[in-house]
Amino acid sequence: MGKVLSISNHKGGVGKTTSAINIGAGLNKLGKKVLLIDLDPQANLSQSLGLINHEKTIYGALKGEYKLEPVSVLKGLDVIPSTLDLSGAEIELSSEPGREYILKELIENIRGSYDFIIIDSPPSLGLLTINSFTAADEIIIPLQAQFLAMQGLAKLVEVVEKIKSRLNKGLKVGGVFITQYDGRKVLNRDVVETINAHFKSEVFKTKIRDNIALAEAPAQGLDIFRYNAKSNGAEDYMDLAKEILKRK
Predict the structure, then answer these.
(1) What is the model's pTM?
(2) What does 162-197 look like in DSSP terms, one character per residue?
(3) Which positions ≥6 away from 35 have C-beta within 8 Å?
(4) Buried b (16+ CB within 10 A) or exposed e, 30-63
């Protein structure tokens, strides 16, 4: 059975989507079969991999119109694309019985076909994110090495605990990792110290360095490994993927 990871942080601009794509691509390069699910109404993951205007998206699947229909990006790397229409799902699904379990039930049908299923969760704590957490085994949290990084984290952890007690007993925070890191900056190093003190062993050793190639790759519809395999971004996400495998 595949392991389901929810990449989540309701603070924007932390590299959540970039991380979902490149952790998935890194695990794929390490020989794992990976499914990426774009659960964000902004559809940035889908757009970043050149998947635009697909007929069958996560939105239609959540509404019960069809089952999950993975789109192959590479051998062993599939995507369930999103659409802007997903922004209406919170209201449309709010009256559905068992609404928190819709995504979990969809995933259960295809879970055995993958080693990892990675959900790019929306930057909010609404029904879509609750569906992501209910379906997941672990939540992976990207954090910027900036002063405001810890703001709002307490709320996220509180929501995780509520989901764990009420909807998903096996849920846990699988790890926290630092993004947009510049070791030359004292502030970055200080924030990392604070995060290490707070989360201790949950913090991944790998830090994702500030790297222009990570910002350029989506414009070409590529993950970092196909865009620039020798970049710091590719090196860091490969190291992170290896760490995630070790923790499995």
Answers:
(1) 0.95
(2) HHHHHT-TT-EEEEEEEEEE-TT-HHHHHHHHHHHH
(3) 2, 70, 78, 79, 80, 110, 113, 114, 116, 117, 118
(4) eebbbbbbbbbbbbbbbbbbebeebebbbbbbbb
Give dist(CA 153, CA 148) in Å, integer: 10
Look-up of token digits 């509180």 = 158
Burial class of residue 171 (count of CB atoms within 10 Å of its CB; 0-12, 13-18, 19+): buried
Could you read off the pLDDT tens digit of each residue along the chain, which spans 248 residues? 799 999 999 877 788 999 999 999 999 999 999 999 999 999 999 999 999 888 899 999 999 999 999 999 999 999 999 999 999 988 999 888 999 999 999 999 999 999 999 999 998 889 999 999 999 999 999 998 887 777 767 788 888 999 999 999 999 999 999 999 988 898 888 888 888 888 888 899 999 999 999 999 999 999 999 999 999 999 999 999 999 999 87
- The DSSP 8-state label assigned to residue 67 in this structure reads -
CA distances from 96 to 59, 93, 100, 127, 179 (A): 14, 5, 9, 11, 37
Burial class (CB within 10 angstroms; exposed 0-12, middle 13-18, buried 19+) of 138: middle
Q: Please name the residue that has the structure tokens 């994702």.
A: 208
Specify the DSSP class assigned to residue 73: E
